[in-house]
Amino acid sequence: MSRLSPRALNCAPSPTLAITAKANQLKADGHDVLGFGAGEPDFDTPQHIKDAAIDALAKGKTKYTPSAGIPELRKAICEKLKTDNGLDYAPGNVIVSCGGKHTLYNIFQAMVSEGDEVVIPAPYWVSYPEQVKLADGTPVILQTTDETNFAPTIDQLKAAITPKTKIVVLNSPSNPTGAMWPRATIEALAELAIQHDFYVISDEIYEKIVYDANEFISIAALGPEIKKRTFTVNGMSKAYSMTGWRLGYVAAEAEYVGAMNRLQDQSTSNPTSIAQWAGLAALTGDQSFLAEWCTEFDARRKLIVAGLNGIDGLSCLMPEGAFYVFPKVSALYGKTTPEGKTLQSGDDVADYLLATQKVAVVPGSGFGADDYVRLSYATSRATIEKGVARIAEAVAALK
Ligand SMILES: *Cc1c(COP(=O)(O)O)cnc(C)c1O
Prior knowledge:
Elements: H1 6-9, H2 15-28, E1 34-35, H3 47-58, H4 71-85, E2 94-97, H5 100-111, E3 117-122, H6 127-134, E4 138-143, H7 154-160, E5 165-170, H8 183-196, E6 199-203, H9 224-228, E7 230-235, E8 248-251, H10 254-265, H11 273-284, H12 288-309, E9 324-325, H13 346-357, E10 359-360, E11 362-363, E12 373-376, H14 381-396
Parallel strand pairs: 1-10, 3-4, 3-5, 5-6, 6-7
Antiparallel strand pairs: 2-8, 7-8, 9-12, 11-12
Helix pairs in contact: 3-11, 4-11, 5-6, 5-10, 12-14, 13-14
Organism: Armatimonas rosea
Protein name: Aminotransferase
Family: Belongs to the class-I pyridoxal-phosphate-dependent aminotransferase family.
C-alpha cells in the first residue's frame, strides 16, 4: 500500500515536461536534437522589463507584498482589461498569482467541490483536468477534432451541459491546437452559462498572439450577466516572454477573488515581489515588440504548416493564434518502422521521430487527442526547416 495520498497518486505527470526531459537527455548524450516541445516563446524578456526588476531589487522592494499583489499592479491590470478587453473591473476584482497555472489552480480550489462537473473541450491544455481532479471535481471531456477546426459545435456544447455543470473552460487561441472559437460559438457558450447558471473560465493567455484577421474575444465583454459568471485569466508568460517569472492573474466577482485571496494567504502568499514590479513595467511599458514577435511567429507558422502538409500522411490545420501546430498523424498507423515496429498511436509516432531523427514533438495523448502530435514553432526558422526535412525522411522510411 502506498502511503501517498490518493490526490498525489492520481495526479498525472506533465507530458510536455516529460518529452523535454527525454530530449535534454539525448542532447546531453551528444545527439543533435531538434526540439519542438517548448511551451514558451524563444524570445528574451524585453530589457525594460528586466530593468524594472533590477530597479525594484536595488530599491529594496524585496519584502512581502499583499497576497493578492501590489496595488500598482492590480490597478494596471484593471487598466489593461479596460483598454484591451472593454472590461470594467476594480482592483478588488483582481488577484495576482504565481503564473496563470497557479491562478487556474486557485479558481478550481475556490469554486469546485465533489460532484461538480467541469467541461473541458479537448484537445486541452494538460493541466486543466488534473487541476479539476485535485479540487475533487469531475472533468467532462468534450471531444473536438480537426474537422470542426478544434471548436465544439453549439450542439456539442449543449449536450455536454448537465445540472452538475459548474464550469466550462474556454481557451481560444488554444494550446495545443492554436485554434480559435468562432464568435457565434463563444456567444452560444455565454447564453448557455446564463441560462444554466454555470461559470466560464476564459484562459486568455494567448490573447496577444493572434494572426490574420482573426478576432480575439473576451467572453466577459459580451454583457453584464456573462461577466458575473466569468473568470478572465491571463498572465505575463506568453505575451511578454516571462515564463520563468511566474506571474498570472484573474478578474472575477469580488466574492470569488476574496476566496482565492484567502487560499493564497494560506498557501503561497504573494507572487515574488520583484517579479510583480517587472510585471507592472510589462503592462504599462512599450508594447511595440509584440508586433515584431507576432510577425516572426507568423512567418514560422506558415513555414511549418506548409512543410508538414507536404509530407504524405500528415495533415495540419493553419493555426489562428498561439505558437503551436497540431498535425494529425493517424494516417501513419499500420505502417512499420525500419526496426520492425508498427505505429499505432501518436505516442508511437512521437517515439519514432525522437529515436530515429532526434526530433522532439509532444504526443497528443496528454492533450486528450491521441491521433495528433504537438509541435511548438517558438524556435528558429532554420530549426523548423531542418525539423520538417527530418520528419519527411522518417516518414519516407516507413513501410
Ligand atoms: C502557458 C499557459 C498557461 C499559463 O502559464 P503560466 O506560465 O503558468 O502563466 C495557461 N494556459 C495555457 C493554455 C498555457 O499554454
